Amino acid sequence: MSIEDADRARRVARVLVSDLNVEWADAIRLGLEKDDLFERLGPQIERARVFYRARVSLQRVPDRDRIFDWALVDVMFAQNRRVRPYIL
Questions:
Q1: Would the pLDDT of 85 be above 70?
Q2: Do residues 16 and 48 touch, judged by C-beta distance below 8 A?
Q3: What is the pTM of this model?
Q4: Among candidates 26, 30, 31, 33, which has minimal Cα distance to 88?
Q5: Which residues pair with 64 in a beta bridge?
Q6: Rounded mean pLDDT of 64-72?
Q7: What is the pLDDT of residues 49-58, one digit of tens each?
Q8: Tens-place pLDDT, residues 12-50
């Protein structure tokens, strides 16, 4: 069953990123501190993205990829806002 609604796609993306945030909390914190988050968690993020894309219809939700990227920022980064990034 394909997801054909942008609101539902947002919820699915946020759940997937929240799961990453729980399972890989230490690696996320370290990746933010060392400014290598996407190298450190690349395979895990890509697996979540592939799962998401397989379930969300691109024809019905044209912003599908942008929704997932916003979930990364909104959930992963916002929930770790106390971490002092490398660039500060």
A1: no
A2: yes
A3: 0.86
A4: 33
A5: none
A6: 96
A7: 999 999 999 9
A8: 999 999 999 999 999 998 998 888 999 999 999 999 999
Question: Measured between alpha carbons, how far is 35 from 54 in angstroms, rounded to an integer?
Answer: 29
From the list 62, 61, 63, the residue with the least C-alpha distance to 4 is 61
Q: Which residue's structure tokens are 């980064």?
A: 77
> Could you give the C-alpha distances from 27 to 15, 40, 68, in angstroms and in order?
18, 7, 20
Block residue for tokens 């993020």: 45
23-32 contacts, C-beta under 8 A, 24 or more apart: 28/76, 28/80, 29/80, 29/83, 32/77, 32/80, 32/83, 32/85, 32/86
What single string gives the DSSP state of each residue in 32-49?
HHHT-HHHHSHHHHHHHH
